[in-house]
Design brief:
Layout (H helix, E strand, L loop, with lengths): L2 H60 L16 H4 L12 E4 L24 H7 L3 E6 L4 E4 L2 E5 H13 L6 E7 L9 H9 L15 H4 L4 E6 L18 E3 L7 H13 L10 E6 L12 H9 L2 H10 L8 E4 L4 H15 L4
Parallel strand pairs: 1-2, 1-9, 2-5, 5-6, 7-8, 8-9
Antiparallel strand pairs: 3-4
Helix pairs in contact: 3-4
Protein name: Phosphatidylinositol-specific phospholipase C X domain-containing protein
């Protein structure tokens, strides 16, 4: 065999070996990556299971008793009226709220909706169930959205609110409307809100916190408008600026972590009687991109049933006088009753 042929064969052998080694190395890296990801997911599931058990054990050991826990409003649609508007001070109300309120018809059913839907009821039905704080996110064309997914126009929300107000007499609503993260403000949106809701709007005023519901009537809506780039509503105007509704949103799908963080942030707030803003705690958990469970309902369900336990823990830790707005995904009657019950206890001087 000539030297040239031998050299060619030698080079081919080296190339084949190198190619085989490279392929083997890539396969090994892929296996290691998949193994690490699987291990991470296994640990994640263990953590979630542990945290769920932590809340379950706490509920079993501490129970859910607090002043007013046995109270049930005879008419949730008119629960403020039932407590006597002349006795209910605005800053002492425990306001039942909903998170991402206008998502009942967001996205496509069975396709994208499960990843963004936080409420199954319309705004009207939420209010009729007893919710008194709604959280609305809009984009530039005035459509309601949650991230990149959209639903109906904000006109649907406004009409639902008006319908509810027309059927009640003494119910006050906190209507929070904000431009969703990553979106532009709708043009002339402040003017739009004033034109649509003007007769019902309670003007921005620090003195409102020390007034009773009866003193605010016939005005019915505290509308907090939170633009991203447009100017904030002016002091004394018909809309309230973002500083009047505060929270510390915690982005986690771990229920005990969220529960404890809520207590921690609440402990850093002044009592309701000495602050001139509303503070919100959200009884929610949020799907995470690195976790295989991405649908809202099963993730938020990890904490959903512990609203009463949270109120009990507020009393246990001396924080009950700081609780004000308490919001949830997929609001139900029991959650409303817990908030109304504590409000009743405050009205009666029992909490």
């Amino acid at each position: 065999m000539s030297s040239n042929k031998k050299e060619t064969r030698r080079r081919r052998t080296i190339q084949n070996f190198s190619s085989s080694s490279s392929s083997s190395s890539s396969s090994s890296s892929l296996v290691l990556t998949m193994g690490a990801h699987l291990s991470k997911q296994v640990e994640r599931r263990k953590t979630i299971s542990t945290e769920k058990k932590t809340l379950c054990d706490l509920k079993q050991s501490r129970g859910c008793d607090f002043p007013g826990c046995d109270y049930r409003p005879s008419d949730r649609k008119n629960w403020m009226s039932g407590l006597d508007p002349g006795k209910i001070y605005v800053n002492k109300i425990v306001w039942p709220g909903t998170h991402d309120s206008a998502t009942n018809k967001i996205g496509l059913p069975f396709i994208t909706r499960p990843f963004a839907q936080c409420q199954s009821l319309s705004i009207y039905d939420q209010l009729a169930t007893g919710a008194r704080v709604v959280d609305i996110r809009v984009q530039e064309d005035r459509r309601v959205c949650h991230g990149i997914l959209t639903t109906y126009s904000v006109d649907v929300v406004i009409n639902d609110v008006k319908k509810f107000l027309s059927e009640t007499q003494s119910e006050i609503i906190i209507l929070e409307i904000r431009t969703e993260f990553g979106h532009e403000d709708p043009p002339e949106f402040e003017k739009y809100l004033e034109e649509e809701l003007g007769e019902f709007l309670i003007h921005q005023d620090d003195n409102v916190f020390g007034k009773t519901v009866a003193e605010l009537l016939p005005k019915r809506i505290i509308c907090v408008w939170k633009p991203r780039k447009s100017p904030q509503p002016k002091a004394g105007g018909s809309l309230w600026s973002s500083g009047y509704l505060k929270d510390n949103w915690i982005d986690t799908d771990l229920p005990s972590t969220k529960f404890d963080s809520n207590l921690k942030h609440l402990s850093e707030q002044p009592p309701v009687t000495s602050r001139k803003f509303f503070y919100r705690v959200e009884n929610t958990a949020t799907p995470q991109a690195d976790n295989p469970v991405l649908c809202v309902r099963p993730v938020t369900g990890r904490i959903h049933g512990y609203g009463r336990l949270f109120i009990t823990q507020c009393f246990s830790k001396g924080l009950a006088d700081r609780l004000q707005i308490f919001s949830t995904d997929f609001i139900n009657e029991d959650f409303v009753d817990a908030c109304v019950g504590l409000t009743y206890a405050r009205v009666e001087g029992k909490a």
